[in-house]
């Protein structure tokens, strides 16, 4: 028996393109369709009244929010309804109401969802064509690069609303934070740690480069999205800085303790013991709070020690070479080298030391 895949469409103040999409889905026999009116208000009642028969004929449902609660909450409302009212549904495909997603593209994502039951499916657009608004083109490129660095996973279209989501993952997404556009970014970050991400090429559809209409607020929603993306890196930054402070504090304490009994070796003993404790602290913070790793502690600890050793040797070698080659103060050279290694170390820890999944 073919796996049943539903269509979820969050809609806030939609226009005739919304009805055109529903008619195309109806003509293609695609459904069930679950529409969420996200508080569009009385002015849009006639539009949703016209949509109701199409939604009902598909076997789906038309859901309502009394006030606008955001795209993330609209998606969760639909997910909750699907889980409670349709036990035969194995996955859903989310689509936007503004005409960007054609029936053919939706079909591709449906098929990919059926063929990849453990994956999050993304319908990805090309952003190098002339019809793409410059804001979308450059915004996506920047977000693509930042997301790849922070998550360790490359996604070519981080802003796509056309996604295939498995039933089990729908249930998990109900617990994910985010009520508005930032919810979709949280979903990507969560999926990057949890399951494979499969990309399906789709058409790039915009009204025009200059006049494309969207409810996405470039300032407010971008701040929300980048705050989410950067949260993990700032935890990593806090972990590193607090480890440094702890190392210096412990060094001072151990110097005071060991100096009377080890007058010749107290500094070396204090250095080694302080570094062992601060490194252990840094490892545990990164394991639990930064990367939320599911790797075995013994395995990740061994990799962490190996990375720290290699990083120390690289720092020593690079500082030595650069000091000999450049007329720059040694302290400045070391600061620059260790800053570069700091960013490189984040990637290595994420991809190799504290991996969450294969």
Can you give a write-up of this model?
The chain folds into two domains: 4-216, Alpha-Beta Complex (Spore Coat Polysaccharide Biosynthesis Protein SpsA, Chain A), CATH 3.90.550.10; 232-353. Helix 7 (182-194) crosses helix 8 (220-258) and helix 8 (220-258) packs antiparallel against helix 9. The radius of gyration is 26 Å and the shape is elongated. The protein has helices spanning 16-27, 45-57, 71-85, 103-115, 134-151, 167-173, 182-194, 220-258, 266-290, 297-325, 330-353; strands spanning 4-11, 33-38, 61-65, 89-94, 120-124, 163-166, 197-201. Helix 1 (16-27) links the parallel strand 1 and strand 2 (33-38). With 358 residues, it is an alpha/beta fold. The longest helix has 39 residues, at 220-258. Strands 3-2-1-4-6-5-7 form a seven-stranded mixed sheet, with helices on both faces. It is 58% helix and 11% strand.
Comma- or semicolon-separated keywords:
single chain, 358 residues, alpha/beta, Spore Coat Polysaccharide Biosynthesis Protein SpsA, Chain A, seven-stranded mixed beta sheet, 11 helices, 7 strands, 58% helix, elongated
């Amino acid at each position: 028996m073919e796996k049943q895949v539903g269509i979820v469409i969050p809609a806030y103040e939609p226009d005739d393109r919304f009805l055109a999409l529903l008619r195309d889905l109806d003509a293609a026999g695609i459904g069930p369709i679950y529409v969420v009116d996200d508080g569009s208000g009385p002015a849009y009642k006639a539009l949703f009244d016209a949509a109701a028969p199409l939604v009902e004929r598909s076997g789906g449902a038309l859901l309502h929010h009394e006030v606008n609660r955001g795209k993330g909450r609209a998606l969760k409302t639909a997910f909750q309804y699907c889980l409670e009212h349709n036990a035969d549904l194995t996955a859903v495909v989310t689509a936007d109401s503004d005409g960007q997603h054609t029936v053919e593209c939706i079909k591709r994502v449906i098929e990919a969802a059926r063929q990849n039951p453990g994956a999050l499916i993304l319908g990805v657009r090309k952003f190098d064509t002339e019809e793409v608004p410059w804001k979308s083109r450059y915004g996506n490129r920047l977000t693509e690069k930042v997301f790849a660095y922070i998550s360790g996973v490359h996604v070519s279209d981080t802003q796509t609303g056309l996604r295939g989501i498995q039933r089990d993952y729908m249930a998990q997404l109900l617990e994910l934070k985010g009520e508005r556009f930032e919810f979709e970014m949280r979903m990507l970050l969560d999926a990057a740690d949890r399951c494979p991400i499969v990309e399906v090429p789709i058409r790039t559809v915009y009204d025009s480069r200059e006049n494309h209409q969207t409810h996405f607020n470039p300032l407010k929603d971008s701040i929300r999205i980048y705050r989410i993306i950067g949260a993990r890196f700032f935890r990593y930054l806090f972990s590193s800085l607090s480890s440094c402070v702890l190392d210096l504090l412990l060094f001072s304490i151990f110097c005071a303790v060991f100096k009377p009994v080890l007058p010749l070796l107290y500094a070396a003993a204090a250095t080694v013991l302080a570094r062992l404790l601060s490194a252990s602290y840094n490892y545990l913070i990164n394991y639990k709070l930064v990367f939320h790793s599911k790797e075995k502690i013994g395995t990740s600890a061994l990799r962490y020690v190996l990375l720290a050793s290699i990083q120390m040797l690289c720092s020593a070698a690079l500082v030595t070479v650069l000091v000999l080659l450049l007329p720059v103060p040694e302290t400045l050279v070391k600061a620059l080298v260790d800053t570069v290694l700091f960013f490189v170390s984040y990637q290595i820890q994420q991809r190799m030391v504290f991996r969450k999944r294969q």
